[in-house]
Amino acid sequence: MTSARPRPAPITDSHAVPAALLVTAILLLALNLRGPLVAVSAVIDPIRADLGIDAATAGLLTSLPVLCFGIATPLASAVLARLGLARGVLAATGVLLAGIVVRSLDGLPAAITGTLLLGLAITAGNVAIPVVIGRDLPRHAGAVLGAYTAALNVGSMLTLSLTVPIAGATGWRVALASWGVLVVGSAVVWWWATRGSDARPAPPRDAPDGAVVTAWWRRPVVWVLTAAFAGQSFAYYSVTAWLPQLLRDELAMPAARAGAAASVFQIAALAGAFGVPVLLRYTRAVPTVLVVCAAWITIPLGLFLAPQFWTAWCVIGGAAQGGGLVVIFSLIVRVARDSAESRHFSALVQGGGYTVAATGPPVLGAVHAASGGWTAPLAVVLAAIALLAVAGSLAARGVAPTRPGRG
Fold first, then answer.
1. Inter-residue contact 371 to 377 (CB < 8 Å)
2. End-to-end CA separation in angstroms for the chain
């Protein structure tokens, strides 16, 4: 499924200070790639009361960006190809800031427009960052991808924990708009870390004598990775959406406690984000994929067989969902033959995966309503994880460990 490919010469990794600055820029940017979206859920009640909207309409403020992650990736990839990765991401931070401001203006049209701008901007960041890591930091790609994934979760936790007290003092509009300060700061650091990088010539990519270069969309590995990411994302968004309700139904848990309990699933992702790069460094990719999937299935199986031990299942499954994201991004970086192909791979894999993921919460809700219980919905999650296991293992065949000092 995979073949050996020459590594590009690192652009930013040749000097310690620029490399550290680029990693800092990536992590600061990652804080903004989920935080502004989940901040809405922390103040959804005052938003509904202020705008006079029902729950379904309010749900658009969180579901529209996920749809953008799916259907807007071709546009994001084209913009990044035209502007270059560094300038493209900088432009995306400008759109992100505009979206945060517009969303906080008066009226539902402004809220929807701002949300769409947020979704489009974050889509560009989703596509670009794994490519930048693979291109500019090849010797440390696994570790940086893990830190990047962890920073996504840290950004979510940061905004969820601070938006409510800020809103209590200033109102929900100022609370949501205040996160634009973090966007500005990350944009400044990103500009400083990447200035001039798009103007540098790409390293030579000579193919072996007699080799026929296959068009990127004809490589089976990209479609297999897309299927794997679809399974990962479908399971993640389904569990995220319905875990509090399941805990309330199965354990008679109060709503407030169920919401706090579900956060364990998110926080535990940090362990997987940092643990998977270690596994990839010392073991082949296929066993790493299987370890991640074995941990992932503890959520549906554990909640079905012994829901009273939900803490253990959320910790193990939460670590797995963080690790699943890292392992797929790592495979994209390692099987793509150059940065252009990496960008195409990133766009297709994430576009297809997030499009499928957007169907997860409504599908699980429909299955729950039709069956009257949680056994069938948990079986659907288990099937999505099985897709991740099979497709991820196929994509990982032939990918060797990354020993210290290698890519």
1. yes
2. 19
- Write out the two tokens for 166: 């800020």
Rounded Cα distance between 364 and 239, Å, is 9
pLDDT in tens, 369-401: 899 999 999 999 999 999 999 999 999 986 767
Closest CA to 346 of 91, 186, 87, 134: 134
Say what the pTM is. Answer: 0.80
Identify the CATH assignment for 16-199 out of 3.90.550.10, 1.20.210.10, 1.20.1250.20, 3.40.190.150: 1.20.1250.20
Among the listed residues 274, 257, 275, 389, the one whose alpha carbon sits nearest the alpha carbon of residue 311? 257
Nearest partner of 229 among 78, 80, 347, judged by Cα: 347
Percentage of the chain exceeding pLDDT 70: 89
Q: How far apart are CA 12 and CA 343, in angstroms?
A: 18
Do 8 and 339 touch, CB atoms closer than 8 A? yes
Report the b/e string of 67-105 with b at 16+ CB within 10 A.
Answer: bbbbebbebbbebbeebbbbbbbbbbbebbbbbbbbbbe
Tokens of 290: 């299987």
Contact partners, residue 76, CB within 8 Å, separation at least 6: 120, 123, 124, 126, 127, 128, 347
- Tell me the C-alpha distance between 224 and 331, whole Å: 11
Domain 16-199 and domain 216-396 have a common topology = yes
In angstroms, the CA 123 to CA 117 distance is 10
Tokens of 97: 């800031």
Fold of 216-396: Growth Hormone; Chain: A; (1.20.1250)
DSSP string, 139-190: GGHHHHHHHHHHHHHHHHHHHHHHHHHHHHHH-HHHHHHTTHHHHHHHHHHH
How far apart CA 300 and CA 378 sit, in angstroms, is 5
Nearest-10 crossing angle of helices 310-335, 220-251: 170
What is the 8-class DSSP label of residue 404? Answer: T
Q: How do residues 338-362 score in pLDDT, each as one tens digit?
A: 888 888 888 899 999 999 988 888 8
Please state at what angle helix 310-335 crosses helix 255-267, rounded to 10 degrees: 40
Neighbours of 297 (CB within 10 A): 20
